[in-house]
Design brief:
It is a single chain. The protein is an alpha/beta fold and about 100 residues long. The chain has one domain. The protein has four helices and five strands, in the order H-E-E-E-H-E-H-H-E. It has a three-stranded parallel sheet with strand order 4-1-5, sandwiched between helices. It has a two-stranded antiparallel ribbon with strand order 2-3. The longest helix has 14 residues. It is globular, with a radius of gyration of 14 Å. The two termini are about 15 Å apart.
Length: about 100
């Protein structure tokens, strides 16, 4: 498999049509454009990269940052725990039905 920003952007845009608050939670390794490459998985730390960042990938990452819709899990942290917690976290009532989390 390959980390696909195009698919993620499609899901993000579709969810934004339904609710104003969407949060994308991902391991920071997927957003480190300074590396110039996107790993197959967060465990690809041995230099086994699958593809390079494209201009649309970088635009989408910037869009998420501008929308304040991106949370990057620190390197070495289990991103599954972050998204699980974010879905269970008790929020004020006005947010519970209008917030979605994508990982």
């Amino acid at each position: 498999g390959r980390f696909n920003y195009e698919q993620l952007e499609w899901v993000y845009d579709e969810l934004r049509k339904r609710t104003p608050r969407v949060l994308v939670v991902m391991s920071e390794i997927y957003a480190r454009s300074s590396l110039g490459k996107v790993p197959n998985s967060a465990g690809s730390s041995r230099g086994q990269y699958h593809s390079s960042f494209t201009e649309p990938d970088l635009r989408f990452l910037n869009k998420l940052r501008d929308d304040k819709a991106l949370y990057l899990c620190p390197r070495g942290a289990d991103d599954d725990l972050f998204w699980l917690y974010s879905t269970l976290y008790e929020r004020p009532e006005e947010y519970t039905s209008t917030s979605l989390v994508i990982t």
